[in-house]
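Supplementary Methods. Inverse-folding protocol.

Structures were first reduced to a discrete structure-token string of length 185. This string, shown here, constituted the complete conditioning input.
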């Protein structure tokens, strides 16, 4: 528990003020009626993939539930705002970013480096795994970053589908608890 708190605080210190893509986040309510996710590159997941599409589906379902409760309708493309998200998974030895739904031209490697530095700051010699979910809400016309939020959680080994879905929903609920939407309709 103490280590998880240290990782969370370390990431907060690194990611919030130091996220390099972009440096300005608009403040206040988000004025939108619809949203869509960043379109991932075309093609199917390779045969050696580790089931990430199931996790992406859970993340997107959780985000969709949260935004629908705030009055935003999901559309396949061309929404008033675009939701981009980045998953960073790390342990005591390495860190990996899963950026299929984060978009292009943004510094994911810088965010991954910051997470890895934060994950490795503990003096605890025990092995750990942590995951970070970072979500950006972007104005689809101006491409201004309207909101950036992230949450860090320790990773469970071999959770059931139900437990994984519940933990993702809890993390997304925390991400969106302070997001204010002023519906355009």
């Amino acid at each position: 528990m103490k280590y998880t708190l240290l990782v969370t605080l370390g990431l907060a210190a690194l990611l919030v003020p130091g996220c390099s893509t972009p440096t300005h986040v608009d403040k206040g309510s988000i004025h939108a009626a619809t949203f869509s996710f960043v379109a991932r590159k075309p093609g199917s997941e390779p045969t050696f993939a580790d089931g990430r599409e199931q996790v992406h589906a859970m993340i997107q379902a959780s985000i969709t539930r949260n935004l629908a409760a705030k009055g935003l309708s999901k559309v396949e493309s061309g929404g008033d705002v675009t939701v981009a998200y980045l998953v960073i998974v790390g342990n005591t030895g390495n860190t990996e970013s899963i950026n299929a739904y984060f978009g292009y031209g943004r510094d994911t490697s810088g965010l991954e480096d910051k997470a890895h530095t934060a994950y490795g700051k503990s003096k605890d010699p025990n092995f750990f795994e942590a995951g970070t979910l970072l979500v950006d809400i972007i104005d689809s016309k101006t491409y201004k970053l309207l909101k950036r939020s992230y949450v860090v959680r320790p990773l469970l080994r071999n959770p059931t589908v139900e437990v994984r879905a519940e933990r993702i929903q809890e993390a997304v609920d925390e991400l969106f608890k302070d997001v204010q939407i002023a519906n355009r309709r």
